[in-house]
Automatic annotation (TrEMBL):
Ribonucleoprotein in keyword set: no
GO molecular function, one term: NAD(P)H dehydrogenase (quinone) activity
Coiled-coil region: none
Name of the molecule in the record: Transcriptional regulator
Similarity-based family: Belongs to the WrbA family.
Naturally occurring in which organism (per UniProt): Pseudoalteromonas citrea
Amino acid sequence: MMINIVVLYHSSHGSVANMAHEISDTLDNLGATVKLRTFEKKQPHDIIITKQDLVECDALAFGTPTRFGMMAAQAKVFWETTSDLWLKGQLIDKPACVFSSSSSMHGGNEATLLNLSLPLLHHGMMLLGVPYDVPELIDTTTGGSPYGASHVAGADNTSKLSNTEVKICQSVGKRLFTIASKLK
């Protein structure tokens, strides 16, 4: 049984891209067919998301950096074009998770994770968080939240993902795959 998962992200300084790759690698290792997509072509290997990618996927991981507690404008512009999918109910009951990065510990990651969730909930998707059986969620001194994976990049946006943040990203990918598999 093939599980098709889209990992959709926008990244300004590389942190969210690194998180997307951690999630994608986990999904790939579990046997999922992964489509890594972005909202704009910033790197030669970037592939821009299409609405058809969403229609065809079994699950979605969606992330952007925080912008004052909200998703990046590039993501918002895309979601505003998806009313036709909403009218047809084409994303209903697909599992989804969210991830984000900010420059400081109190830089808005949790608000952004909630903001990223809103279009997914409007589309009828099933939102998956990070349950407290993930030990790194309790131990983290950097990113991570019950609402989704997160990263604290530092004021100069140069901090690498901590081991805790990596494990939380991996747990998000594993949970997304598990639930998508059960539903398929």
